[in-house]
Amino acid sequence: MANKGPAYGMSRDVQSKIEKKYDDELEDRLVEWIVAQCGADVGRPERGRLGFQVWLKNGVVLSKLVNSLYPSGSKPVKIPDAPPTMVFKQMEQIAQFLKAAEDYGVVKTDIFQTVDLFEAKDMAAVQRTLMALGSLAVTKNDGNYHGDPNWFMKKAQEHKREFTESQLKEGKNIIGLQMGTNKGASQAGMSYGRPRQIIS
């Protein structure tokens, strides 16, 4: 981890492709949201991928963010008084954020791995997780979201329909087009391949 040297060959190509997915405009929007959600005491990062990573690396800002989405009195992540300085404590703080984000409703496929943030392996994945968290917060509309609701897309919500018994019976009389039809295309006149050649 600490003695990681420069990447060469294919691993450098892979890393450069991952780094190209990072979105600077999205970073600005996420920083604005985190500051609006947590308050100005979280500070602001230096612009750029590395500054964003350093700002979030110890997990405290992320923990404050996820805690701010819950009503007061039910905070899922314990935040230490002094920011953790030991590596494993920082990684543990990030892991607590990830667990809380998953409990909040973020899908596992949208959640980054701890090393993606801690070692800056995939900061685009960190952005995806924060976007998913913001989208959920806007969709829940429970009063705990702060900031511009237009920063995130609302997730699709279930729209349950209730049918009466007579409507369900009427539906059984209709033959859907998925069942097939006896009109339209047929195989009449089609031939496959060349006919067999008989030479005598």
UniProtKB/TrEMBL annotation:
Q: Where in the cell is it found?
A: Cytoplasm
This one is known as: Transgelin
Protein family (similarity comment):
Belongs to the calponin family.
The UniProt keyword set, sorted, is: Acetylation, Cytoplasm, Muscle protein
Q: Which InterPro entries match?
A: Calponin-like, Calponin_repeat, CH_dom, CH_dom_sf, SM22_calponin
**Coding gene?**
Tagln
Source organism phylogeny: Eukaryota, Metazoa, Chordata, Craniata, Vertebrata
Primary localization: cytoplasm
Q: Which organism is it from?
A: Alaudala cheleensis (Asian short-toed lark)
Domain Calponin-homology (CH) stretches? 24-137
- Coiled-coil residues are none
Q: Per the UniProt record, which residue ranges are transmembrane?
A: none
Per the record, its GO cellular-component terms are: cytoplasm
